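Notes, p. 3: input format for complexes.
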Amino acid sequence: MDKLKIGIVGCGAIGSSLARVIVKDFSRQARLSALFDIDKEKARRLSQKLFRTPAVAADNLKQLLRGSGLIIEAASAKVSWDIAKRALTMGRDVMIMSVGGVAIRLAQLTALAENKRAKVYIPSGALCGIDGLKAANMGRIRKVTLTTVKNPASFKGVKYIEAKGINLSKVKKDTVLFFGKAAEAVKYFPQNINVAAVLSLAGVGVNKTRVRIIASPKVTRNIHEVRVESIAGNITTRTENILHPDNPKTSYLAVLSAVAMLKQILGPVKIGT
Ligand SMILES: NC(=O)c1ccc[n+]([C@@H]2O[C@H](COP(=O)([O-])OP(=O)(O)OC[C@H]3O[C@@H](n4cnc5c(N)ncnc54)[C@H](O)[C@@H]3O)[C@@H](O)[C@H]2O)c1
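Output follows (273 residues plus nicotinamide-adenine-dinucleotide):
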């Protein structure tokens, strides 16, 4: 059987981890065909580290798309929709990590993929409960709420909080910073964008999914609680994330979630909804 050729766009914390896993653990089923980063030196260095040659560092996105069957986007929400669109138009499968950039594009992604018989993969990321939410969504869902709890320091520089006049250094007890639609949460809290986007895509969309964001001086980890109320019953999950050593904005579980999805794509057995 031919090995799946995988190209990675974005050689930061997630892209580098996935590249290493593909070369080290999935070499029987897959081949790392190309690496591309807007900072070309990053792609060259990563290629050099993995193969002792810059052989798989691509000069541009087009070159990467041409030589790969599965594209992993791990770059930025500003470009994830464009990358997915270009990959799918060429009939390539695509795994999207910057989910915020496609939060309102489910119908378009579906149409493009169907047209070329390609696949779109969106890992659960730093969030647990997507399996149950997807199953419940086959019946009827009444309500989906995401509650994110982070240390006040994690919200430094968020313009929405500055505009509300909240002084983060004076937050001494749990304080609700935001409660509203996921559509608004992803606008005001860009660092929360991926969890809210995945939850919305898997469930009832950005306008019906509710998001509550709490600053808590008691916590050091990023905590995501999901509550689903449905005719099949209620689901509550709580994920306490350890941050990735290479990028403190990214949860380690998000990287592992992409690895687990890759394992499903490459392996014969699919477990979970
Ligand atoms: N789905 C999830 O649960 C989840 C979790 C964490 C992060 N993310 C998202 O995944 C993406 C990657 O995360 P990370 O921690 O690896 O970030 P990172 O900052 O460590 O790496 C991103 C890399 O992409 C490169 N890049 C930026 N724009 C690019 C472009 N237009 N073309 C090519 N390369 C480009 C950067 O130079 C950088 O090397 C981010 O968008 C992040 O928000 C998703």
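The chain has a mean pLDDT of 95.
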